[in-house]
Model the fold of this input.
Amino acid sequence: MREYHGADIRNIAVVGHGASGKTSLVDALAFVSGSSKRHGSVKDGTALTDYSAEEIDRGFSINLGCAHAEWMDAKINLIDTPGFLDFQGDAVAGVSAGDGALCVVNANSGVEVGTEREFREAVRRKDPVLFVVSMMDKEHADFDRAYDQIKHKLTAKVIPVQIPAGSGPAFHGVLNLFSRKAHIYKKGSKLGQYDETDVPAEHQATFDKYYQELIETVAATDDSLLERYLEGGEISRDDVTKAMKEAMKRMELFPLFCVSSELNMGVQAVLSTIVELMPNAYDMEEVHGFRGAEGDHTVEIHARDDAPFAALVFKTISEPHVGDVSYFRIFSGTVSNGDEVYTATRGSAEKLNHLSVSQGKDRTEAPRLFAGDIGCVAKLRNTHTNDTLSTKDHPVRLPQIDLPESLVQLAVHAPNRADEEKLQAGLHKLHDEDPTFQMHYNAETHETIVSGMGERHLEVTMAKLRRKFGVTAELTKPRIAYRETLKGRGDGQGRHKKQSGGRGQFGDCWVRFAPLPRGSGYKFEDQIVGGAIPRGFIPAVDRGIQEAAQRGVLAGFPLVDFKVELYDGSYHTVDSNEQSFKMAGILAFKAVASKCRPVLLEPLDEIEVLLPDEYMGDVLGDLSGRRGQILGTESVEEIDGAMSGYTRIRAIIPEAELHLYASTLQSMTQGRATFIRKFKGYEEAPHEVAQKVITEHAKEKEEELVGA
Ligand SMILES: Nc1nc2c(ncn2[C@@H]2O[C@H](COP(=O)(O)OP(=O)(O)O)[C@@H](O)[C@H]2O)c(=O)[nH]1
Ligand SMILES: [Mg+2]
Done:
């Protein structure tokens, strides 16, 4: 491949709902351009960008994938993204690596949840978007319906540029409004060969209608063009494309195309339009206004070949027999094969062996890559997704991709102790590969918790764990980290005395317990006067009480938010030691805590649900069924009309009621609502809830005793 500089590079994220035809379109674009020798298919598992075992098994994209098409002296980098919410992390990463997006809409099912979500993501980043209606050859394909839905559900600024000649089985070509020509496809050709003709008479009326609409809409975005148009002057193809490109950069126009990727029809025009209308790798700089950090000061990042090298790793995929492959977007400077670079976020030096560009899973070595390009490299030692590659002289850190927060949490268990270490190592590797998959150890419940974007996300990640690390892990509902506290005061004695030949043991203490406000933890006050307990033994009493408090009094959960005053005691000059006073502390806790009206505390989360207004009633009803306390609701600010009719609900919900809430919310709202959660704090659990937890604990203890 020849060398490409930023002005001749287009970085395009291909987004849309799951199964809208994104992966097939990327394959067709690469194939028709001649850059990929084989027309792959999702159905056979040969599509360029769906090559992992998990993707081939399931028949849909899980990881973002990179391919390219060389066309009209430019290189188009295509970033294929997954369309399901479960894999939204990769969609966001893909959009952030691109300068523009191609939003695919299925000619059959029209605008779907994922179309709306991914279009919004591109708009949020202020990227130009080109719509493509896919699968025009399929039964019931309907271009006009898809157009209408985009117009009413996504943006009124959509404008058709390429319309179909026929549809479904009768789809036989496309009419291009820019060139005013028809491409009529050669029957039986699967390679997309066509004859270029004038617009056939049968399509003339449709063509004229759309042509008029296009010219008027484009003219309206540019004053001088509009003036000329109103005065009846000639408007050339160049005038239209120039005005359109500018309007797209301001997000004032979104052109619409139609294709059949299966038959490679309409694909050439999409390639040409990407080159002509989409921004090159330098164009979006002013919009994205990039800044990074070097040490503790801010530096401006410019997409120039002569600036210091800085690239963001937007994806890591670990591949069998290869190891980790890191995909990066160069935001400034150039890089050559074999260069030593530096990962400032981790302070690690890395050597770029086999610097490459990828065509799906195939990688071709590139001697040198320039500002604005996308490349990949295998086997970096300590560089992960969202890290910046730069140089020792200029250790730059670029802004990280703002990945979505996890929605679902489950506990993960190794099948046996021997696999525990492998499990932990595997989970860490999987997190490095996919930052939306996270794990932590909950010391209170003694469980490793994994969290992700949805049940399917976690299920797929466990499949990767099995394949790559040979561990079959089980996912279960996480235990709730209840706690206990005291509502009353009380005092009493802990006395430990043992005399069984030889030296005895003696410790004796008097303590007062009192409740503390929520979140205060534990306080110990030494009020011993006159040496009733020698100084050296007092910390032992404290330790004994703390140790006993870990096991609580009601249901085995840690007892928190209470104060202990140690006010009296006695000792024996020979038999007293630290161990005896620790025992006295434990006994004192047991004697006193149960007298101070112990209660169960449950963890609460604050959640924020973002949903279309029409589901308000259902979602609020469901939340109150989950013991939710609604804090408020508010309408969401519109972003280019994309968020109209949305409301945000804030509520506080017990964690115990949030298990798999993401899935319920999805099915309640046809997948259109999202939510975020964060830990809020502990509150006393209602009586019935507490009673149930206490009974369960008693039963478990009994079973343990029987088992022992
Ligand atoms: N008939 C027809 N089927 C298509 C076309 N494009 C994609 N498909 C099929 O639609 C399904 C989903 O396509 P895919 O590219 O995986 O969609 P993605 O999930 O958006 O990447 C697959 O079974 C494809 O074979 C097309 O142009 N014509
Ligand atoms: Mg796909």
